[in-house]
Amino acid sequence: MKKFLASFCASLLLVAPIVHAQQATGLPAINTQAPFLAAALSEFFSDTRAFTAGVELSITGQAGGQAMKLPFGVAMADGRMRWELNLANVKSAELPPEAITGIKDMGLDRLFFIYLPGKPLTLGFPGMKSFVEMAVPKPEGVQQQAQEKVGRLEKREIGRENIAGQPTVKYAVKVPGDDGTATVWQATNLQNLPVKIAITKDKQAYQLQLSNIKLGQPDAAYFAVPAGFARQADLSAVIQAAAMKSLGSITGGLK
Predict the structure, then answer these.
(1) Which of 37-46, 51-60, 189-198, 234-243 has the least mean pLDDT?
(2) Which of these, 212, 184, 225, lies nearest to 82 by C-alpha position?
(3) I need a labelling partner for 228 at 20 to 30 A (CA). Which of 38, 40, 79, 124 fits?
(4) DSSP state of 180
């Protein structure tokens, strides 16, 4: 699983052409910071944990600018992952309400990623009942760097806190020779699952916090494309079909 982390961090950028927010706070930096983010997030991504939860990712700009808040749902089990996102819930100055309205009209406001070990990454659009399969991005050298950093992680206990009602042990995580830092809060009554992770790298801050956590095997349906979804050749084909559908509804209303 940890070999996949760096590529998955970079794959978050795949959403940018859809939302027309390529310059959204924090997103471009994920590409260059993927190795350290992958290492720090290795506490969160585990082959042995099975659970479902809500997650909120907050990204603050290098100049301390307005954070982007990205809430999504996650299901994990046996190396399989599903991430589910509703763009209407994203809070960012780069994604104004009118942009969301346009995306929703095209049926692209909801999407999900499904990752199965050894398989392509599946990106699905419930509003279009369509999905595409994509090779997991492999930025040159990023995976090797991430693996090296994961292997060199240093972790030390720095306190105990309650996070969202959960008793946790707080750890500082550091990669020797790297200027990035991370703090992990592991819930003692949830099999030491990290319920909060704060990461700082190159003056950029990332935070993930879990909620509504349910331990145990998720429904197998989470890791399969729903019946009736059509496979599209690529992401461009999905966007083109969505644009034509939206245009058809507009012209149909003019009759």
Answers:
(1) 37-46
(2) 225
(3) 79
(4) -
What are the strands of the beta sheet with 121-125, ordered from one edge? 154-163, 166-174, 181-187, 193-201, 204-215, 51-60, 68-77, 80-86, 110-115, 121-125, 130-134, 230-231
Residue 104: the pLDDT is 80
Rounded CA-CA distance 222/40 in Å is 26
What is the SS3 assignment for 69-105?
EEEEEEEEECCEEEEEEEHHHCECCCCCHHHHHHHHH
Distances, alpha carbon 21 to alpha carbons 16, 133, 254, in Å: 6, 22, 31
**So where are the chain's domains?**
2-153+197-246
pLDDT digits (tens, 9 = 90+) for 192-210: 888 998 888 777 788 889 9
Which pTM does this prediction carry? Answer: 0.76
CATH 2.50.20 assigned to 2-153+197-246: yes
| Residue 143 reports pLDDT greater than 90 | no
Interatomic CA distance for residues 170 and 147, integer angstroms: 24
pLDDT tens digits along 116-131: 888 888 999 999 999 9
Q: Which two tokens stand for residue 170?
A: 């707080």
